[in-house]
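Let us work through a complete example step by step.
Step 1: write down the sequence.
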Amino acid sequence: MKLGAPALAFTLALAGCSPPPDPAALARLEGGDVERGRSLLSHYQCGSCHVIPHVPAAAGRAAPSLAGFARRSYIAGQVPNTPPNLVRWLQDPQALLPQARMPDMGVHEADARDMAAALLAQP
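Step 2: predict the structure and record it as tokens.
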């Protein structure tokens, strides 16, 4: 039996298997600036711990790579990966996950929004 596109989409949605969101759309949703976000990821030295594609010198191995971050379901394996949660995580990781190993880097909300846009735009 061959399903049409609408029927297939409906079936996948019911099964909880919807396609991953478009990273560019998520970045726009947050109103973030991807290029500024990449610069800020460098400024806050996120690459000291993480590998982050398109961020110069971001080759750290102490924490997980952030490549393909938009395709992840969870932040730190426990917090749903939504744009608002990611912005909040970047500002104060322990507020979302008290046992988080990521330090509070003193990131301001506007910076966190741009950094989130950059992470959600990762290929």
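Step 3: interpret the result. Confidence is low (pLDDT under 50) at residues 10-19.
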